[in-house]
Amino acid sequence: MPTQEKERENYITTSGIFDVIDRLGNKVLGDEWRFYSEIDLYNKPEYINPTAISYKINHRTHNEQTARKPMHKDIEEEDGKKFLVQGQMFDIILCFGIWGKNYTQINNTREWFEGFLFENLDELKKEGVLKLLFDEQLEDDIVTINNNYYAVQKVKYYFRNSVLKRTPQDIISDININFNGFTDSQRAQNFYENN
To answer: What would the CATH number be for the domain defined by 2-169?
Structure first.
């Protein structure tokens, strides 16, 4: 069973990616680390002191290797119950914004952050990130919040992750019985309607 638990540790949700980056940033910068969702910076611009890094999901889709349907991974048993374990890979474009009032500080913070991501690539992979690649840097922007102006540099990164889902086997049996019962009764109804 320890190997299954070890395998399961290599799966991470999108919000889990943000949590890992936040934890790693706190380890490196402590109280100087400022990492928030983009909406948090609009609601509390005081977080931008002197700079802050925002995050948001720009795009997320299934990976072509697993397609739209989760793939069967395993059947696990726990406390006498069986669970179907399925996994699915996702391709995600995450957008990170570097916010502040001083362009030099913003630019330096962006360069540091990009290096930070790649310096911590092994740690991110241990946590379940399967792939991390630079995608693009967007045009610099000026944002007004409460009559204050902030410059923002946004960079997009491509991440690939995999998510596991455990479903109790008895629920799957109920779904199959109900679905099979539905299709049988639907076939019978179609037969009588068409004849």
So the answer is: 3.30.2000.10
